[in-house]
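2024-03-11 09:14:02 DEBUG pipeline.ingest accepted 1 chain
2024-03-11 09:14:02 DEBUG pipeline.ingest length=122
2024-03-11 09:14:03 DEBUG pipeline.predict start
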Amino acid sequence: MSETIFTKIISREIPADIIYEDDMALAFKDINPQAPVHFLVIPKKPIATINDISEDDRLVVGHLSFVAAKLATEMGFAEEGYRTVMNCNEFGGQTVYHIHLHVLAKKLMGWPPYTNKAKALE
């Protein structure tokens, strides 16, 4: 896998507003927030897309959700609710090819999550 902005954040080549770190994951505030609270939880292991998750990655990928829930509780929005999103490839909206879990909160979310700008497959 090629180097991404996220691998550069992990190695501290690029600054980020880091809110959590352990041996498997890193969480930091999104630079283009789509809700009052919007942060990303990423694995330190580079995995390009959801399609690239191997059986050996089950623990680290599950850990991303654990970290999201832990931070939601610590930051005080777990009970009112929040959204987690993981995009996959171009039509899924993925722009950085290093899996990442978006955590969005403090905003009433609607469904479906897309806007009129989204293109449908024909």
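2024-03-11 09:14:41 DEBUG pipeline.report The chain has one domain: 5-105.
2024-03-11 09:14:41 DEBUG pipeline.predict end
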